[in-house]
Design a protein that fits this description.
With about 290 residues, the protein is mainly α. It contains 10 helices and 4 strands, in the order E-H-E-H-H-E-E-H-H-H-H-H-H-H. The protein binds zinc ion. The site of zinc ion has 7 residues, from strand 4.
Length: about 290
């Protein structure tokens, strides 16, 4: 809100954006090209004819989203190497729940519908649970800060004009069911080169996230990218590894007790006492390290 003592001195607009579609490693470039999905990073800069970069960005991601929706309907038959068949036949435990197999809960060979590649052995119940994910996660650098204003405003307009309801439902994905094996170096060169990173700091934000995703997948066999927060992810890891089923709160008083116990607080481990030692403080001790 502009009051009478406020003077507008600047009006900020987006100048450019960059998008990179990060596909699974064993999805072929041919398949992406077949659905006209960009395989290289896109850098866009506003021009005189097209100055509205935020709008262009939203149109671009909605457009890519529609193409991904079509791509996800691909269903290639399973391809297994002799070694994979051998591993599948001899294995005794489901890769997700670690449970054994039985006549009632049989062994299933789970494959990537987009590549046909065999991924893991699953119990029938896990295989069924695995198939219901219907979203394509998008990651924004620094969205919680300054840039979000432009994008969120633009997404708001987009929604009014676009019938996105059926599209959302169609976002069907089996992308989560594999371990990631990356050729890190080639990938890193590609990202660095194409995004034109100026500093290692800028690059490392993206790299750290990619690396974190890989480690989560290897350690827990859960896809971190599908969680909104790290605590949410941790919560699932805890449930998975302790194999504890939490009791449903059906008693009203018990429910109230839990609700009263929920607090929104700020928690941080802090040092209790900090004392600076440098030239500007009165009792500076030059024998000790500066701080
Ligand atoms: Zn299972």
């Amino acid at each position: 809100m502009k009051g009478q003592n406020t003077t507008i001195i600047q009006n900020h607009k987006l100048m450019s954006y960059g998008i990179y579609v990060n596909e699974e490693d064993d999805i072929s470039t041919e398949l992406l090209e077949e659905f006209d999905i960009p395989t290289e990073p896109i850098i866009y800069r506003g021009t005189g004819d097209e100055p509205d970069v935020a709008r262009h960005f939203v149109e671009q991601i909605v457009n890519i989203g529609k193409k991904v929706t079509k791509l996800l309907k691909t269903n290639k038959p399973i391809i297994m190497t002799a070694e994979e068949v051998q591993r599948y036949v001899t294995c005794q435990h489901c890769n997700l729940c670690n449970g054994g197999f039985s006549a009632a809960n049989s062994k299933i060979a789970d494959h990537n519908n987009l590549s046909g590649k065999y991924q893991q052995k699953l119990s029938n119940t896990c295989n069924l649970k695995c198939q219901t994910l219907k979203l394509v996660p998008c990651f924004f650098y620094n969205l919680s800060n300054y840039e979000s204003y432009f994008i969120v405003t633009e997404l708001g307009w987009g929604k009014l004009e676009e019938d996105t309801l059926t599209e959302k439902e169609d976002f069907y994905s089996t992308l989560t069911k594999k371990n990631i094996e990356k050729n890190e170096y080639v990938h890193a060169r590609k990202v660095w080169g194409n995004f034109g990173y100026r500093t290692l700091g800028e690059y490392s934000d993206l790299y750290v996230f990619e690396n974190f995703r890989d480690i989560c997948m290897m350690s827990y066999n859960l896809v971190q990218a599908y969680y909104y927060t790290a605590p949410g992810f941790n919560y699932d890891v805890t449930l998975k590894y302790t194999r504890i089923g939490l009791e449903l709160l059906s008693d009203y008083d018990m429910l109230l007790m839990f609700e009263r116990g929920i607090h929104g607080d700020f928690v941080q481990p802090s040092m209790r006492y900090v004392k600076a030692n440098n030239i500007t403080v009165e009792d500076y001790d030059k024998m000790k390290e500066d701080s």
